[in-house]
Amino acid sequence: MKICGFLQKNNSLDEKGRLAGQKNLLSCDNSDRDARFRLTETDFSNLFARDLLPAKNGEEATIQFLLELVDILTNYIKKTFDRSTKVLDFHHPHQLLEGMEGFNLELSDQPESLEQILVDCRDTLKYGVRTGHPRFFNQLSSGLDIIGLAGEWLTSTANTNMFTYEIAPVFVLMEQLTLKKMIEMVGWPSGEGDGIFSPGGAISNMYSVMIARYKYYPEVKTKGMSAAPRLVLFTSEHSHYSIKKAGAALGFGSENVILLSTDERGRVIPADLEAKILEAKQKGYVPLFVNATAGSTVYGAFDPINEIADICEKYNLWLHVDGAWGGGLLMSRKHRHKLSGVERANSVTWNPHKMMGVPLQCSAILVREKGILAGCNSMCAGYLFQPDKQYDVTYDTGDKAIQCGRHVDIFKFWLMWKAKGTIGFEQHIDKCLDLSQYLYNKIKNREGYQMVFDGEPQHTNVCFWYIPPSLRSMPEGEERREKLHKVAPKIKAMMMESGTTMVGYQPQGNKVNFFRMVVSNLAVTQSDIDFLIDEIERMGVDL
Amino acid sequence: MKICGFLQKNNSLDEKGRLAGQKNLLSCDNSDRDARFRLTETDFSNLFARDLLPAKNGEEATIQFLLELVDILTNYIKKTFDRSTKVLDFHHPHQLLEGMEGFNLELSDQPESLEQILVDCRDTLKYGVRTGHPRFFNQLSSGLDIIGLAGEWLTSTANTNMFTYEIAPVFVLMEQLTLKKMIEMVGWPSGEGDGIFSPGGAISNMYSVMIARYKYYPEVKTKGMSAAPRLVLFTSEHSHYSIKKAGAALGFGSENVILLSTDERGRVIPADLEAKILEAKQKGYVPLFVNATAGSTVYGAFDPINEIADICEKYNLWLHVDGAWGGGLLMSRKHRHKLSGVERANSVTWNPHKMMGVPLQCSAILVREKGILAGCNSMCAGYLFQPDKQYDVTYDTGDKAIQCGRHVDIFKFWLMWKAKGTIGFEQHIDKCLDLSQYLYNKIKNREGYQMVFDGEPQHTNVCFWYIPPSLRSMPEGEERREKLHKVAPKIKAMMMESGTTMVGYQPQGNKVNFFRMVVSNLAVTQSDIDFLIDEIERMGVDL
Q: Residue positions of the PTM N6-(pyridoxal phosphate)lysine (chains A, B) (predicted)?
């Protein structure tokens, strides 16, 4: 492959002058002049990984290889936002495993040329799913934030580890300052609050259960669950399954995670919580922990935190708020009231990688009481965290975590916050919620649609059945239920085959499969919502 | 800031022709022609995040912004491998928090210009640590693999999630095929073996304990630890603290993680394991799980797996091999004998992000028995993993994991394997071990050095004291111990202040602080080892 061109720096200006408004901030001073990249003709068919840095004279091949990759990536990015491209080019597992047009997934003993590696990169993107496409509505995490992406590219280039200040000085401080801002948003009094970024909401929720147990029964850390009475945890029947997973993993047992009834909107009924606490106590169990969900996965429901907090105070229970999905609303003056009472929680899960558009993975566990996170998790491994370092080792975070090494998840989020400001996140949240409102208003009385629950959506989740014409006059009953149950999977399969859009569906309780629409991508417009509805109708009309 | 230049595609060839040896594989066919990037003059001081895609007409600003970033990153990469640059430019936390030359870490309500964002990116790298520098020896994970880096850039651009085939078809299959290769390397019989990538070795080890418990006491999943007798786990006193953390987290209690004595090289003494099993049984405890470390953190010791496996078979215990650090040696025909017996393990932790140079995070938990991983972790969340999809849902991995969302850690590793081949990893391993041998031979009889243990290193870990001239004639005793304890921290502090190199130190048991040298970076040469020794002597001569 041949590429011709040049790119050279032809100005040299002073980097030090970083005063506001001054131009040319990025150019370099004389002591630290960097050559800008220059693209040259490169034939990658005879180059291999071993020819790249640190190989002798590997610099040029390295730069050219990375620029080729960037060319592939920037083209992918452009297409991601281009509505004339597909969301995906679907193939079944066996098709991809058999090798599509030479795209061979098998690994071998011998190296491939860099040319083939670049082809592999292109094919990997080609057969993947464009999660940043404005018509991808399938998951709570969607979108492709360019600043966040830049943050990830830098993070992987820095390739370091969060466990000590020694090897991640800047990132450790960014994490601390960002957690402080998040804690302010939660509303805990100044001086309170601690936290850490974890690999995802399930792990953050697991932290909350561990810390609650440590608070009330610290001896479990050393002696195990036999040192505690038979503990029970409470969470909504609509809550994320990670609370149950945490119960199973941490030795409580999933049966001791008691599910709370919800109202028709999927919100916990506080009276049911109190009744189940009393029932558990009567049976000899000891209630420990209540999870209130702020933004449930399917309905987007916000449990009434204040009423739950009253009960937790009355019975001296740990209150956790799982705001993995809804925590982002704290950034919006218009919508943060939905988490009213969150400042009374003992711990909060909040995933910026969901509603705030931060690239995966970015999840925080916030804990009101200072020191308890370290108390719960520290093992004081002297061989890893030496107290006799020359800097203030209280900045080392490793012993707070259940992990040892920890990926740098903070930088992309910090950089996005810098680039957007708090108001940028607020606009993002408000816009996505407006779009859900638009969808709700569009379909609530439209022929062929039935809402799963009445009333305006609390979050961006809009849950609905599409009723094909053939079912519209059918009487309620088992036959109609069975037929309706198959509608969403059929439409979804058609969507994936045609690649035009993607939206999730699921059953819930005794409700047959329905669509769950969510918006978290800033690229979405009303026209994309209209497109989704048109597609559903186009595909569903003959079912 | 002004940049002039152009880069344009000036050939157009057929992409479909991917036959071996054929040129121009990367160029595009007519149906899918991508414009190559073209750099233009861009003034970023009046551009903001909101001007980038998905903004209308945001494409040009987006591409230019990313290319500027790539310019910063490629310059950083070049310097990383340049021995005339420092490993780090050390500052204390308070200095960075006060703001270095305008580098302000605080977040604010209002957005910053893209020009400032690019400056922030440059500063973030400037005040960080070059973990890929050939003289960075501080951690088990080091190096900057260009293919791995390319893999991470692509991964973050694809920004998807491993939980279902639906949204990560290619990555899910890559994970499956790569795990299969790793399982072959472990040596389990064909048809056996399962696994998953986790956020790090500590979580992988936690998986192993959970799965062992599920195997012997499946009812703990639902009923909690009260459904099991008082279980104990065994691991070496030299093993990683994550086994103890898992014991604490999962409800066993850290005191029920029984530490095994080791020989002078840090290897478990099998007779001690058997004695402690019997002792525990006599006290009414039930032994469950034994961890054998393959490559300990400090000494790089390999526990004798076969002898431990014999005991595990005799007493019907789960055998886990923590090969987070040493697992990579399975790729080397010369060194894999150090893990002899690993094929008898029930589970294995193996972190490609350590010895194999894969960027963070990349850790696998491998489990011999098929199905048990899902059995242990599944919660059958129908609302997340719908059984009525149009593809084979056995490829969905989400319910196997303790996580829900899961970052794509596989692609960089798969791409490196493609680009290097198995033989490339073997060469990497062999070269690093040769360098450790070189260091060992250089210092074992050198004046002023004392080895922490006798004999050749098993892994790349070389542990030694540097004895400054002032201590060389001092008699053994408490005074000398106290003085020697301070030598490594003092030299380390000087190293960090001068920024020339970084190496770890720690105490271990009753041994005072000593240096632990490790090599996992392919960029390291004998001259870098020589440099380290020169630096230690230069800095330590007057202590």
A: 354
CA-to-CA separations, A488 to A485, B159, B223, B398, in angstroms, rounded:
7, 26, 36, 21
Residue B417, both tokens = 């394997």
In a domain, A431, yes or no: no
- Residue B342 domain-assigned? yes
Residue A177 covered by a domain: yes
From A139, A227, A404, residue closest to B202, measured CB to CB: A404
Task: Point out the least confidently predicted range of A384-388, B52-56, B330-334.
Answer: A384-388
In this structure, the answer to whether residues B247 and B110 fall within a common structural domain is no
Chain A hits for B106, Cβ within 8 Å: 177
The three-state secondary structure class of A327 is helix
Cβ distance B11 to A21 less than 8 Å, yes or no, reads no
Smallest CA–CA distance, residue B280 to chain A, in Å, is 15
Distance CA(A408)–CA(A236), nearest Å, equals: 32
Q: What is the pLDDT of residue A35?
A: 65
Q: Same domain, yes or no, for B73 and B217?
A: no
Examine the pLDDT at A504 and tell me if it is beyond 60. yes
Q: Which of B395, B416, B437 is the last residue of a domain?
A: B416
- B105 and B244 housed in the same domain: no
What was the pLDDT predicted at B522? 96
Question: Could you give the CA distance from residue A63 to residue A55 in angstroms, rounded to a whole number?
Answer: 13
A123 to chain B: nearest residue by CA?
B170
| Chain B residues with beta carbon closer than 8 angstroms to that of A221 | 248, 253-254
Residue B5 near residue A94, CB atoms below 8 Å: no
Q: What band does B24 get if pLDDT is binned at 50, 70 and 90?
A: very low
Q: Do B388 and A513 touch (CB under 8 A)?
A: yes
Distance from the B225 Cα atom to the nearest Cα atom in chain A, whole angstroms: 5
Q: What is the mean pLDDT of residues B65-79?
A: 97
pLDDT tens string B226-249? 999 999 999 999 999 999 999 999
Q: What is the CATH number of the domain that holds B117?
A: 3.90.1150.170
Asked if A200 lies within 8 A of B404 by C-beta distance, the reply is yes
Distance from CA of A155 to the nearest CA of B (A): 9
Shared domain for B91 and B211, answered yes or no, is no
Task: Show the domain range for A212.
Answer: 156-417
What does the alpha-carbon distance between residue B68 and residue B70 come to, in Å, rounded to a whole number? 5
- Residues of A within 8 A of B515 (CB-CB) are none
Please check whether residues B223 and B311 belong to one and the same domain. yes
Q: Residue A369 — very low, low, confident or very high, per pLDDT cuts 50/70/90?
A: very high
For the record, the structure tokens of A44 come out as: 């990658």
Phi, psi of B323 (to 5 degrees): -105, 30
- Integer Cα distance of A177 and A184 in angstroms: 11
Q: Are residues B195 and B116 in the same domain?
A: no
Q: What's the domain count of chain A? A: 1
Residues of chain A in contact with residue B131, where contact means CB-CB under 8 angstroms, are 158-161, 167
Q: Which residues contact A473 (CB under 8 A, 6 or more apart)?
A: none
For residue B54, whether the previous peptide bond is cis, meaning omega lies within 30 degrees of 0, is yes
Closest to A296 measured CA to CA, from A322, A270, A318: A322
Helix (H) or strand (E) holding A135: none
Inspect the interface and report whether the beta carbons of A18 and B227 lie closer than 8 Å. Answer: no
Give the residue on A whose Cα is nearest the Cα of B102.
A18
CA distance B306 to chain A (A): 28
Residue A399 lies in a domain: yes
Digit-coded pLDDT (tens) for B407-454: 999 999 999 999 999 999 999 999 999 999 999 999 999 999 999 999
Contact residues, chain B, for A197 at CB < 8 Å: none
Provide mean pLDDT across the span B198-204: 98
Q: Are residues B196 and B126 in the same domain?
A: no
- The CATH number for B350's domain is 3.40.640.10
Answer with the one of B401, B416, B431 that is the final residue of a domain: B416
Reply yes or no on whether the pLDDT at A156 is more than 50: yes
